[in-house]
Amino acid sequence: MQLAKQLSKLGTETAFAVSAAAAAWAAKGNKVYPFHLGDINIATPNNIVEATIKAIADGYTGYCPGGGVMALRDAIAQDVGSKRGLSYSAENVSIQPGGKPVIGKFIMAVMNPGDEVLYPNPGYPIYESQIEYHGGSAVPYGYVETADGFALDLDGLKASITPKTTALIYNNYQNPNGAQSSRAEMEVVAQLALEYDLWVLADDAYYEIQYSGTPMTIADIPGMKERTVILYTCSKRFAMTGWRLGAAIGPTNVIDVINKLNTNIESCTPHFIQRAMVEAIAGDTSGPDHILAVLRQRRDACVAGLNAIDGINVATPNSTFYIFPNVTSIMARKGFSDVNQLMNEALIETSVSFCTRKHFGRPVAGEKDHYIRFAYSGIEVADINEGMAKLKTYFER
Ligand SMILES: Cc1ncc(COP(=O)(O)O)c(C=O)c1O
Fold first, then answer.
1. Of ligand 1's atoms, which has the minimum distance to the CA of residue 123?
2. Which residues line ligand 1 (CB under 6 A)?
3. Domain 5-43+287-396 has CATH 3.30.420.10
4. What is the pLDDT of residues 204-220, one digit of tens each?
5. Ligand 1: distance of its center to the CA of 334 in Å?
6. Average pLDDT of the chain?
7. Fold of 61-282
């Protein structure tokens, strides 16, 4: 019996393999410093937990409409719209079990087999996987490293557009490199989308994980709202990664299709979680503020620890909970050519676990520098400091 041929196109999140290696190392009695997975070890705000228990007790345990509970669609429309200076209504919102499903459903809604879709690389690996699984061609665009962090390679992006390009995936507040567009950079991206008539997926998973300043959206540039689908998630904002609640927000013609896909795939997102989140999204903001305060301390400890290492010089990202240091000189010192060798040896030598550039899309021909990624959302400051000290000894050896 054979499995479907199309499965050869399906990728995965190889970061989960790093988790398995870290777990195996921990099972041997080692204390692992877990910088590999963007999971959060901060508790979900209590008001959300209590509202969920109440929603179950109140009997919201049956199916609900595929597009989601109207009150939640409405609350998310108001929240996303007011934060971005845009007007959305419930009809523009499709509730999802997490932010991730928006990626595949956006692709299914706007892409035909043979179309090209631009995606960030290094970037979240599910873009590449979903584009290719659905018969498209995943065309990468990259970033350049600057003294302030990472900026989009706009020339490379423009040069990658062809008559077959139908969509662009744009992850401002970027995983894995923490890149954040200036308004000018965002406007160039929008102009390209307008000029070449592209759909845009604005992956806003980290929109609320901002340490200073006001976040921006590409959707508010004139002409963009009509062609942009926003990926929204409660995972990072409310420390709810395992709950699975998110939404797609965009033009009603795409949202109607995504609602139909929901009905085909999962019927609906858990009903009681939707009921509980109406109030959390419309009202209380104390949870996210507390989460950001904790994350900020961890970020600062992590950046300081990395910059204390001879050969690492990394800027402080203003968003996300990732740091993506360039380790090219460490690689030269160790005599490694494959950055995963560094990852594997570091785990054994220091018990510090991290991902590498290779976990974020297929490396592009001609890449010269080596990068590793630290996620500090799942590790306390004391352990960050301990892990960084071990890494310093090992990296400098
Ligand atoms: C860039 C990006 N987009 C989307 C997601 C999906 O998150 P979730 O499905 O938990 O909402 C993640 C998760 O790490 C991410 O990093």
1. 1
2. 38, 98-100, 124, 171, 175, 203, 205, 233, 235, 241, 246
3. no
4. 999 999 999 999 999 99
5. 33
6. 96
7. Aspartate Aminotransferase; domain 2 (3.40.640)
Query: Mutate which of 40, 128, 173, 203 to test ligand 1's pocket (most atoms within 8 Å of Cβ)?
Result: 203
Task: Using the predicted structure, report yes or no on whether residue 344 has a pLDDT greater than 60.
Answer: yes
158-198 pLDDT tens trace: 999 999 999 999 999 999 999 999 999 999 999 999 999 99
d(CA 182, CA 162): 25
- Which atom in ligand 1 lies closest to the alpha carbon of residue 103? 4
Q: Please give the full DSSP string across 112-167, using - where no structure is assigned.
A: -TT-EEEEESSS-THHHHHHHHTT-EEEEE-EEEETTEEEE-HHHHHHT--TTEEE
- Please check the confidence at residue 200 and state whether its pLDDT lies above 90: yes
The answer to whether residue 288 scores a pLDDT higher than 80 is: no
- Residue 394: what pLDDT? 98
Find where tokens 């877990």 sit: 34
pLDDT number for residue 287: 55
Token output for 389:
């000290």
Tally of CB atoms within 10 A around 275:
21
Ligand 1 atom showing the smallest separation from residue 174 Cα:
1
The vertex-217 CA angle with 99 and 215, nearest 5°, equals 90
**Which ligand 1 atom is at minimum distance from the Cα of 241?**
10
Q: Which helix (H) or strand (E) holds 386?
A: helix 381-396
Mean pLDDT for 317-337 is 97
Per-residue pLDDT tens digits for 18-53:
999 999 999 999 999 999 988 999 999 999 999 999
- The residue whose C-alpha atom lies closest to atom 3 belonging to ligand 1 is 205
Position of tokens 């896909």?
261
Residue whose structure tokens are 């499709």: 94
Domain with CATH 3.40.640.10 in the chain: 61-282
State the span(s) of the chain assigned CATH 3.90.1150.10: 5-43+287-396
